[in-house]
């Protein structure tokens, strides 16, 4: 099969490659994923009102089961990538397929038909797995390998890692943290048709941008190790033995596991925390302040984090970051309803998140190089499949746990009403109390009122723990794990030896 050629042909990383391939190209799919990470569960609980379905079991069990499927497809995709051999590389070709699949399945997530509970449940399960277990797995696996496969130059690779994260942290962060809570969420409320329109636009945006990532990236490591690749056609069991017998891979996987648990729960709790603990439902201000004021360090860090990492080491600055995340989260946990204190805590926490956000993939690539030096084998696809399994499995498990806690503590979804009289009647019939006085609610353009219900104290505690409590504990665990990750001490020498090996093989 003949694939379109990359527009990057140089042996060294170029500015065009950084800006178009690593900054702008991934923006569409990563933006869609960032929005889904924050709002898909809100769509399920508040728009589709699925929390009570099957006694609360559906939103608890289905994400976990789905992520088991997702884990399997990640393993399969890793094997496929390691066995893909084209002139355009082994991971990049799959970006082409994902460019079409991600938009289509992204739209299907939200076009749940108006039907009985069984039909809704089936549609949600199928569309969720088509997106996460199939389309996004293909994109995420191939996209995730672009930095490790781009170059062996540590400085250039670190720069690409930073550019790669700017997209997620800045571009999608501005939209999700600023535009959504201030403008979009108050405008769409729990109107299903508006949600479908919005998410369809975001899904379609991923198509041209993912194609841009394909055309403006290059797999230099794959080209360099073309002969060595023939030696790396190991069985899956042998690949797993190789990965899990390397102590640095075990440590970095453990670090990623605990930080992912904290991050997933935090992302799930964000909207609920701002709606019910710190502010009021879709007030257009609280979530914006928490996300933007707390996220300012992420913008500043673009210019500071890599110079610090080069001077003090990627591992060391990440450890300091973990300590700051724990301190900032603890401050918020102790004073969860005080806006000023929470904003200070969020600022400290996000300052600590800089190293892990911007340089993690460069550190992961160092571990892959160390394993190649030790074993003379390169199994990028298998290594990335484990990385993605951790990411996707924890999303499913933690989503199920979070929804289970909401259901067990009595979470009450908002409802819509055509008038204050209708809203008052429904509140009285169910014994509920509105979060705000009905007279103060502003109707949408079509006159519909969105009525949020005051949550029980146990629900508020669960939401607070999810957003600011758990990360205190996971950051401490991550700090302790990183203490043993000393891969940077010898990586320069090991990379030089790897290059010498491949040079000798090329001459034979």
Proportion of residues in helical segments: over 70%
Percentage of residues in DSSP E strands: under 5%
> How big is the Rg?
23 Å
DSSP, total strands: 2
Shape: globular
**What's the mean pLDDT score?**
88
**Helix/strand/pairing category:** mainly alpha
Oligomer: single chain
Largest sheet: 2 strands, antiparallel
Neighbour order of strands in the largest sheet = 1-2
Following the backbone from N to C, one meets helices and strands in this order, namely: HHHHHHHHHHHHHHHHHEHEHH
- Low-confidence residue ranges: none
The N- to C-terminal Cα distance equals 29 Å
The number of distinct helices, counting runs of at least 4 residues, comes to 20
Could you explain how this protein is built, in words?
The chain has 508 residues and is mainly alpha-helical. It has helices spanning 15-24, 27-47, 58-82, 93-108, 117-144, 146-150, 154-188, 192-215, 220-224, 226-229, 236-244, 247-278, 286-312, 314-334, 339-352, 354-375, 380-409, 420-430, 457-482, 491-507, and strands at 415-417, 449-451. The chain is built from 20 helices and two strands. It is globular, with a radius of gyration of 23 Å. The model has no long low-confidence stretch (mean pLDDT 88).
């Amino acid at each position: 099969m003949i694939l379109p050629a990359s527009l990057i042909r140089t042996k060294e990383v170029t500015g065009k490659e950084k800006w178009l391939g690593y900054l702008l190209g991934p923006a569409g799919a990563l933006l869609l994923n960032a929005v889904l990470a924050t709002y898909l569960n809100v769509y399920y609980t508040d728009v589709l009102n699925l929390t009570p379905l099957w006694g609360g079991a559906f939103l608890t069990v289905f994400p976990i089961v789905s992520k088991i499927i997702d884990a399997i497809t990640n393993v399969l995709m890793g094997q496929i990538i390691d066995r893909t051999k084209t002139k355009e590389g082994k991971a990049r070709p799959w970006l082409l397929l994902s460019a079409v699949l991600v938009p289509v399945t992204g739209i299907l997530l939200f076009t749940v038909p108006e039907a009985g509970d069984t039909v809704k449940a089936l549609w949600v399960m199928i569309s969720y797995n088509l997106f996460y277990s199939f389309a996004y797995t293909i994109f995420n696996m191939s996209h995730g390998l672009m930095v490790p496969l781009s170059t062996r130059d540590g400085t250039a690779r670190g720069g690409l890692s930073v550019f790669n994260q700017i997209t997620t942290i800045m571009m999608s962060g501005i939209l999700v943290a600023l535009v959504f809570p201030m403008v979009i969420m108050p405008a769409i409320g729990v109107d299903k048709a508006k949600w479908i329109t919005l998410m369809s636009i975001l899904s379609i945006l991923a198509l041209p941008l993912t194609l841009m990532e394909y055309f403006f990236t290059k797999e230099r490591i794959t080209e360099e190790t073309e002969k060595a690749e023939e030696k790396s056609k190991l069985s899956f069991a042998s690949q797993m033995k190789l990965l899990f017998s390397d102590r640095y891979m075990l440590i970095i996987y453990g670090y990623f596991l605990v930080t992912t648990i904290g991050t997933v729960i935090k992302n799930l709790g964000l909207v609920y925390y701002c709606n019910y603990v710190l502010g009021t439902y879709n007030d257009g201000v609280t979530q914006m302040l928490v996300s933007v004021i707390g996220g300012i360090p992420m913008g500043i860090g673009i210019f500071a984090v890599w110079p610090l990492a080069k001077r003090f080491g990627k591992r060391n600055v990440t450890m300091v970051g973990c300590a700051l995340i724990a301190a900032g989260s603890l401050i918020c946990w102790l004073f969860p309803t005080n806006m000023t204190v929470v904003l200070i805590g969020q600022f400290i926490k996000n300052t600590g998140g800089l190293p892990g956000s911007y340089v993690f993939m460069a550190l992961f690539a160092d571990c892959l190089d160390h394993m190649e030096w030790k074993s003379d084998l390169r199994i990028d696809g298998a290594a990335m499949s484990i990385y993605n399994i951790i990411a996707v499995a924890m999303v499913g498990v933690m989503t199920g746990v979070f929804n289970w806690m909401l259901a067990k503590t009595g979470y009450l979804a908002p409802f819509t009403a055509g008038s204050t009289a209708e809203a008052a009647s429904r509140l009285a019939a169910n014994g509920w109390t509105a979060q705000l006085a009905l007279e103060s609610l502003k109707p949408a353009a079509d006159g519909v009122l969105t009525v949020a219900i005051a949550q029980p104290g146990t629900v508020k505690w669960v939401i607070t723990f999810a957003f600011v409590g758990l990360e205190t504990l996971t950051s401490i665990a991550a700090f302790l794990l990183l203490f043993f990750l000393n891969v940077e001490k010898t990586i320069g020498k090991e990379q030089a030896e790897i290059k010498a090996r491949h040079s000798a093989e090329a001459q034979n």
